[in-house]
Amino acid sequence: MHAIQLTLFILICLMLGLTLFYSIRSRREPDAAKRGLYTARMNIFMGLMLVLIAVTQIFFFSESSFRRIFGTVLVLIGVFNVFVGIRNHGHFDRLLR
Q: Would you put residue 61 in left (φ > 0), alpha (ψ -120 to 50) or beta?
């Protein structure tokens, strides 16, 4: 159980780092197509991070209806971010080719 929590924590930190990296990179990019590509990657990693946080909240803490609702909302937002990020990544990737 402790190994799973540690793995999730490491993955959350990794996704946070990648989110920050692509956020900074997208804000400094002068080319609009590359900026959109970096923003799409940022959305994908942010969505994955939110899903991992939700899994942590739902499964590894005490039973609480607030935690379940909070986790469910984070899963919905995370899945939406991943979906939008993948869609936008495809769009901006085609523009750069």
A: beta
Q: What are phi and psi of 87, to 5 degrees?
A: -65, -45
Q: What is the pLDDT of residue 70?
A: 92
Query: Is the CA virtual torsion 64, 65, 70, 72 positive or negative?
Result: positive
Q: What is the pTM of this model?
A: 0.94
Phi/psi region, residue 62 (left: phi>0; alpha: psi -120 to 50; beta: rest), is beta
pLDDT average per 10 residues of sequence, the chain (97 residues)? 92 98 97 97 98 91 86 96 98 94
**What is the C-alpha separation between 53 and 56, in angstroms, rounded?**
5
What does the pLDDT read at residue 71?
92
Of 83, 85, 87, 84, nearest in space to 38 by CA: 85
In single-letter form, the type of residue at position 75 comes to: V
- Report how far residue 97's alpha carbon sits from residue 20's, in angstroms, rounded to the nearest whole number: 26
